[in-house]
Amino acid sequence: MTDASLAQAPAPHGAITDVAGIEVGHFTDTRRPTGCSVVIARDGAVAGVDVRGSAPGTRETDLLSPINLVDRVHAVMLSGGSAFGLDAATGAMRWLEEQGIGFDVGVARVPIVPAAVLFDLHVGDASVRPDAAAGYAACQAASRSAPAQGNVGAGAGAVVGKVFGMARAMRGGIGTASVRVGEATVGALVACNAIGDVIDPDTGRVVAGARTADGVALADARHALLRGEAPNPLLAGTNTTIGVVATDAALTKPQAAKLAQVAHDGLARSIDPVHTLSDGDTLFALATGRASRHPGMLVLAVMAARAVALATVQAVWHAQRLALPDLSLPAARDLNPTRQR
To answer: Which of 145, 166, 290, 294 could be 20's S-S partner, Cβ–Cβ 3.0 to 4.6 Å?
Structure first.
């Protein structure tokens, strides 16, 4: 691999917590690589969702349809552990209820917490997965500070580049970024566990993904597949990229749904292949309405796609090598010299 083919380490690009009204907390399990991450909007946020992958694991997504009643959520939970990890949202509900946060139904306040999960059960002991206690702990850790990135929270057990099997894959992770135009900010938090490669959207170079058969270089899955190399993917549903895009602009519920939809353009720019039958790619959109001026949906769409693409690349650049007794996977920094732009 020549120096010209090496990806460059991206500069920091802000965080989803740059959006007014947004907090993030991680819980990372010490027993094996797994965890969960929560995005909290204490005052509520108008929300939307868009599911593009064919193997999703989600909770409360029907509620977010523009034709349905409740228009504000109080948190979004991203979790490892496959469908088991949806239980983390229960812990978030309990924490939010203790804070007096939720949808007022007269006799109680019901916190609205949509959730999405990724599959990380093949990394370590599959009997260990995020539960309600993990979700509660993530909420306790939440703050307005820029969240940690890499192999923490929902990105703890993430793996990318599984097109040719787990033995040729690399570490995934969770990343964040933000974009500001005028008085409006859009931020993203993305947990990348994709079957495909992660690509720098500015250069087109592969940052992390499927490796060559000898394991020492990046294979470039998109070109390998087009040359006729046969895929050897894991069981369908064992890959997914999940995330949240948030803005301080004021949006209606249909506009929030549209923002979630166009945010997937960021995944298409930074992951290849993406939205496959083996992935459950899901993005939520939150609007806190704190900004004094709205830049318009066209500009917000461009900002959202950019923030998601940047966050996806940050997720793998902050990952670290995985070394388990039965599985060893390098990270992006192991195959790419770290050279700041």
So the answer is: 290
SS3 316: helix
DSSP annotation of 223: H
- Residue from 280, 296, 275 nearest 115 by CA: 280
> What pLDDT tens digit does each residue of the chain (341 aa) get?
334 345 666 666 899 999 999 999 999 999 999 999 999 999 999 999 999 988 899 999 999 999 998 889 999 999 999 999 999 999 999 999 999 999 999 999 999 999 999 999 999 999 999 999 999 999 999 999 999 999 999 999 999 999 999 999 999 999 999 999 999 999 999 999 999 999 999 999 999 999 999 989 999 999 999 999 999 866 766 889 999 999 999 999 999 999 999 999 999 999 999 999 888 899 999 999 999 888 999 999 999 999 999 999 999 999 999 999 989 999 999 987 554 33
Report pTM: 0.94
> How many CA atoms within 13 Å lie on the side-chain side of 213?
5
